[in-house]
Design goal:
The protein is globular and about 55 Å long. It has a domain of 185 residues: 3-Layer(aba) Sandwich (Rossmann fold). Helix 1 crosses helix 7 and helix 4 runs parallel beside helix 5. The protein starts with a strand and ends in a 20-residue tail after the last strand. By secondary structure, it is α/β, with parallel strands linked by helices. Strand 1, helix 1 and strand 2 form a beta-alpha-beta unit. Strands 2-1-3-4-5-10 form a six-stranded parallel beta sheet, sandwiched between helices. A three-stranded mixed beta sheet has the order 11-8-13. It has a two-stranded parallel ribbon with strand order 6-9. The chain has eight helices and 13 strands. The chain is 38% helix and 17% strand.
Length: 272
């Protein structure tokens, strides 16, 4: 396939690029610096020049607290951006796969969230990502929205990706005991995003690794054990105690509905 990847500088974008190259796709990868999805004219020009079979959008503003402060920027990146990509994809006949988030749910449900559940975001970030799903789908029927969360992998900058590295540097770690999610390995997510693009199945998909989910604390303990690192002297905290600007749900576990079963997530993947 001929694939354009937006947001190729991030954790998922790099994983998508690497996976597609391994599948011998013709890849056109763009970082935020070279391809600003908030610029509708630039997006249209670039996509018309590349004329891809599929556009995979990994670009977003994921600073949850920053979004709460600057809602205009959040909506520009997370809502307007996917819409711009969808309109340009429609003009050249491409399928669009755009990444979304578990933050579109409020976390009050018992059990996993599925595509049958109504979103109810409680933060500006969640609102902007949900709006991005909807705008893209309105602009292009061939839009595939991929909801995921708790993503980790080599080169990531979040707690899940850096817990082993930080422990090896001797840092004291704060682990949240009362916030849960479904850990998702970036290369596995990338493989599913490409698979959905190839199958050209419009709609909403929850893409996470299998399993019952874990808290940040449980994930950290399992990762440190797998890496042979010291598991002692972790500071256990609650989400409320961190006093973050944006409200966050305590449970963000997604259930997967996919054309085929996803690979299981081995915690050993953190040994990078």
């Amino acid at each position: 396939m001929r694939i354009l990847v937006a947001g190729a500088g991030g954790l998922v974008g790099r994983a998508v690029t690497e996976h597609c190259l391994a599948q011998h796709d013709q890849i056109f990868s763009y970082t935020h610096e070279t391809f600003d999805i908030t610029d509708a004219a630039s997006v249209r020009t670039t996509i018309e020049q590349v004329r891809p079979d599929a556009v995979i959008n990994c670009a977003a503003w994921t600073d949850v607290d920053g979004c709460e402060i600057d809602s205009a920027r959040a909506h520009a990146a997370n809502a307007n951006g996917p819409e711009n990509l969808a309109k340009a994809s429609r003009r050249c006949g491409a399928v669009l796969v755009t990444i979304s988030t578990d933050y579109i749910f409020d976390g009050t449900k018992e059990g996993f969230y599925t595509q049958r559940d109504d979103p109810n975001p409680i933060s500006v970030y969640g609102l902007s990502k949900l709006e991005g799903e909807r705008r893209a789908q309105r602009a292009l029927a061939r839009t595939i929205a991929v909801r995921t969360g708790f993503v980790f992998g080599a080169g990531g900058r979040n707690f899940l990706s850096t817990v082993v590295e930080r422990r090896r540097r001797g840092e004291r770690l704060k682990t949240i005991s009362d916030a849960w999610g479904t850990p998702t390995y970036a290369p596995h997510l990338a493989a599913r995003m490409r698979e959905l693009a190839e199958r050209d199945l419009p709609g909403i998909f929850h893409v996470v690794n299998s399993g019952a989910g874990a808290s940040y604390e449980e994930f950290a303990l399992a990762a440190l054990e797998a890496a042979g690192c010291d598991q002692t002297n972790l500071e256990t905290v609650t989400m409320r105690s961190l006093n973050r600007r944006a409200p966050r749900s305590l449970k963000q576990s997604l259930m997967v509905f996919l054309p085929s079963s996803p690979p299981r997530c081995a915690i050993i993947c953190l040994l990078f």
